[in-house]
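Ticket #4471: complex job returned nothing on first submit. Input attached below:
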Amino acid sequence: MSFARIAVAGLAVFTLGAAPVRPDSAERTVQAIIQSPAFKSAVATLEREHDRTVADIITLTEIPAPPFKEAAKGKAYMAMLKAEGLSDVEMDAEGNVMGLRRGTGPAGGPVVVLAAHQDTVFPEGTPVKVRREGTRLFAPGVGDDTRSLAVLLAYIRALDAAKIRTRSDILFVGDVGEEGPGDLRGMRYLFGKGKYKDRIKAFFSMDGSEAARVTFGAVGSRRYRVAFHGPGGHSYGAFGIVNPMAAMGRAIDQLYAVKVPARPRTTYAASVVGGGVSVNSIPADVWLEVDMRSESRDELAKLDTRFQEILKEAADHENAARDTRLGKVTVTPKLIGERPTGATSEDALIVRTTAAAARAAGYTPELGASSTDSNIPISLGIPAVTIGSGGRGGRAHSLDEWIDVARPESVRGMSVGLAALLAMAGS
Amino acid sequence: MSFARIAVAGLAVFTLGAAPVRPDSAERTVQAIIQSPAFKSAVATLEREHDRTVADIITLTEIPAPPFKEAAKGKAYMAMLKAEGLSDVEMDAEGNVMGLRRGTGPAGGPVVVLAAHQDTVFPEGTPVKVRREGTRLFAPGVGDDTRSLAVLLAYIRALDAAKIRTRSDILFVGDVGEEGPGDLRGMRYLFGKGKYKDRIKAFFSMDGSEAARVTFGAVGSRRYRVAFHGPGGHSYGAFGIVNPMAAMGRAIDQLYAVKVPARPRTTYAASVVGGGVSVNSIPADVWLEVDMRSESRDELAKLDTRFQEILKEAADHENAARDTRLGKVTVTPKLIGERPTGATSEDALIVRTTAAAARAAGYTPELGASSTDSNIPISLGIPAVTIGSGGRGGRAHSLDEWIDVARPESVRGMSVGLAALLAMAGS
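Support reply: We reran it on our side without changes. The output follows.
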């Protein structure tokens, strides 16, 4: 996940220490929770057992989980959920692993989901050994989203140690397919086919570190794999024929001249590329993957339209610039990912509750939008937000990704999600 | 190999049917050879056994030989050279396979080399099954340069059947590393370290099909693998930082705007590309391979200078266009291939002899330059030309590469190399 702040008009903002202007029900519920001895006991467990959480982060980070290859991590995580004593622990047909912490309500009633994703963006073979420097852990995927997986386990232990029972069942999920090519396949299954699909009344995705963030907006995305094809031939003998690589280069250059608005936040990336057979051959086939996102459906559509024009112009330019007698350059974009744009209402209980929990821990809530697992429930009208796992972190999706696991800040961050979860699950 | 015609001033051009203007010694030697009963008998063998030559082409084409992975083909070819009764059959330390057909001169005397290359441009896993349609064979590598390997075997059988003895030893070579990344490593070894290195008085590379071609010029080349590096990051969260892919796209687009002279023939190709980790990550590393060639050392140097400017400008442009706080884009070109430019003198005996042999078979010799195995002996001042294996062909370095193995045209073409070889080896 990645986040953009949104200036939210009309959202009541409270800060700790100042008297609440208009304490609403969410605020009152959260305050009652965090002041309860049981919650304090749970947080004390998070604090006391923090080293174990760090150990879990390292264990899980060092199991590679490239998109569509999460199975090893999924199995390991399922065993951990089982070890924490959850009921109904299983891996579904898509690869999501989950277990239920039963509430006091009748069996088969509403479920609150807390999910973290197993997959990372990194391909097979990427070294995933965790390097520790002081309180910092460095490794691909350590923060996005492996820390969250470990925090879910810590929550279960803390709730059990404090003997906290909620009214609703809580479903803890380690899901698949959150990153790029997965295209939210884990969530599509959970909400489309999974056995809990009609029981989910609220959904939390824990993704990334920042505890102040309350992601209520779903950034939409469109992702393409673009195939550039031409006749190909000998680099010397066939010089002068069209080269699909030239069209691709031009398309990339033109894309990077496109201006997009900062608000609503709109982005693009030419991200993965490949093709060609040998240095002395004009390639017949090269390809490019491109990611486009926006908080706004209209801006996303506008960017996509411009991108399609750029592709067409790049092919036309190449076919006009060089010899096409052996064949023209063709450019074929294939949609490989599409995520709905949308938002949980700013006034929804889950948004107000999570913001209140952040304030209660001393944070100024940052409401924003991102492209996360929450996109799917949001698109279905199910109350959903994406929250942080606590502690600091950075450089997600890069090989020098890191998190800081200093205990006080980590536990303070973790307390936000726990309070929000309890508030939504009821007592 | 690939060829460009050169307008040759001062070269005597004869055509069959017209009276020679000034029959020189080369012309007289070739005429004596082709009119001899022994040569006619040898050509009759080529004709009679042509189906076997076609079978050898198919057998050898269907053994993959990507650059640096020629071993399987080399072993098979070595067995074939042995089966033809050559002496001193061996594979050298670089992977060249060869065998000697002893002449009548004293052992250890001058050697005439006839070489064809084993390697193709196609990577591992490329389907190499030959498809036949009438007299056409389709398969990657079938013409460049597998037919030549089979023609060498046909020559040995034809010489033996006709009981032709030459004065000089003839070394038949199936060599490695002619294509791109091999960077002529087979020839560098043969002429730099091989046991015949001080005995080679003339060198024929048989590469490609066209029997009219007499390649006496060595097209020089410079090849780069260019690494584009940047900080990388989340496609959405880190949008706005520099992207090495954007610099690469611009460099390709700018390269393809460069005008190069048609004479001296000068070419470039952006040929192979790769990099990036996932569709939703700004890549930290992408790379590009580029091939530049020219008949002229100066034009090649000029093109290379312009290319380096383009790379620098592309990096500068990207670093100015986007945020560099996490790091700048760097562009690092690495020279991965360099072939000397040069030429065997147009007046050299080997050039005049080969042109005479082409004329004797009814072709109008096309003198030109290319980048072939001959580049190495040419750079050492050893008389060398590259000749064709006979028959028609096309689409070298593409997946739809083909040759035509119609018997009359193939045998006519094959007679050119045989006559030139015998003329240079002496009787």
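The CA atoms of residues 184 and 247 of chain A lie 31 Å apart. Closing as resolved unless it happens again.
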